[in-house]
């Protein structure tokens, strides 16, 4: 009988609990999932609008012209006989100093920083949908604060943009009657509105949703799981020691 108990109590003969299948769990609540989706949408919208040269529409030499902060579509060059001809293609300015005005240079830096910040937060939010314990309630609120700052930077860039409408290059495109906060014959493009709308959504909606995005840590659940496994092994050992 003693031999039987020793054999039974050998740890190698104790039943091994079946491993539960690994499932992908999220560290976000249902509100947090909505927050991650909206964060991605606002970040992509603002960043795409930032790179597209459709913030301002005008015309020059009978050809349509469009601008962003650091890019332009269709520009004049000297042709044969020193006459001006329009090159119909889009591109960025050759250097940072070639951007038409100081206001647009500031707008380029500020808006770019805001877009980068929104993209980083959106990436972390998407990862939180796939990884457990990545985003806590406090971490979600900190990320919401970062979104507010990113949206504020983009909004500041949109506010700085009209200050550059008095540069000679813009005035040539806007009928030589444009000035700061006066478009002349030009009109604002859809990319400008998309950038501003994405920033506003990030500041107002995403920042508010982030307060309820993360899950509260629950150490009690972990302790209960350890105690349950310990009790299971203790019951198996007690069964083996009984004659």
From TrEMBL:
GO CC annotation terms, alphabetical: membrane
Record's keyword annotation contains Transit peptide: no
Transmembrane segments: 34-57, 102-130, 142-163, 190-212
Keyword Membrane: yes
Membrane topology: Multi-pass membrane protein
UniProt superkingdom: Eukaryota
Keywords recorded for this protein, A-Z: Membrane, Transmembrane, Transmembrane helix
Pfam families referenced in this protein's UniProt entry, alphabetically: L_HMGIC_fpl
Subcellular localization, as worded in the UniProt entry: Membrane
Name of the molecule in the record: LHFPL tetraspan subfamily member 1
Organism: Papio anubis (Olive baboon)
Gene that this sequence comes from: LHFPL1
């Amino acid at each position: 009988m003693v031999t039987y108990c020793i054999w039974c109590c050998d740890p190698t003969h104790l039943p091994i609990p079946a491993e539960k299948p690994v499932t992908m769990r999220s560290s976000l609540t249902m509100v947090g999932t909505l927050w991650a989706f909206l964060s991605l949408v606002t970040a992509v919208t603002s960043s795409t609008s930032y790179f597209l040269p459709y913030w301002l529409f005008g015309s020059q030499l009978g050809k349509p012209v469009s601008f962003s902060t650091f890019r332009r579509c269709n520009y004049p060059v000297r042709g044969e006989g020193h006459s001006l001809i329009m090159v119909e293609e889009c591109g960025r300015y050759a250097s940072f100093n070639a951007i038409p005005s100081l206001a647009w240079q500031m707008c380029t830096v500020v808006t770019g920083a805001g877009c980068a910040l929104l993209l980083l937060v959106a990436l972390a939010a998407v990862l939180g949908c796939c990884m457990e314990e990545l985003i806590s309630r406090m971490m979600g609120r900190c990320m919401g604060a970062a979104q507010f700052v990113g949206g504020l930077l983009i909004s500041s860039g949109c506010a700085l943009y009209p200050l550059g409408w008095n540069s000679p290059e813009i005035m040539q495109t806007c009928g030589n009657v444009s000035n700061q906060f006066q478009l002349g014959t030009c009109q604002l493009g859809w990319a400008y509105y998309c950038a501003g709308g994405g920033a506003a959504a990030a500041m107002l909606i995403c920042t508010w949703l982030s307060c309820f995005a993360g899950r509260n840590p629950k150490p009690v659940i972990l302790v209960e799981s350890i105690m349950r496994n310990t009790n299971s092994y203790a019951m198996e050992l007690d069964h083996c020691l009984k004659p």
